[in-house]
Amino acid sequence: MTKDVAKQGSRKPKKAARRPRGGGVYVDGKR
After folding, report:
1. pLDDT value for 30
2. Rounded to an integer, what distance in angstroms lies between the CA atom of residue 22 and that of residue 4?
3. What DSSP assignment string belongs to 2-31?
4. pLDDT digits over 3-30, tens only?
5. 30: which residues sit within 8 A by CB, 6+ positions away?
6. Cα–Cα separations (whole angstroms), residue 5 to 1, 21, 23, 24, 25
7. pLDDT value of position 22
């Protein structure tokens, strides 16, 4: 899990954790 979180820690947890929490601003600013 350390390699998955360290490598995709900038794309998986940020997108999946900020998308359902009303991360419309995060998804819109990154996309």
Report:
1. 57
2. 24
3. HHHHHHSTTTHHHHHHHSTTTTHHHHHHH-
4. 555 555 556 555 555 555 555 555 555 5
5. 15
6. 6, 20, 20, 22, 23
7. 56
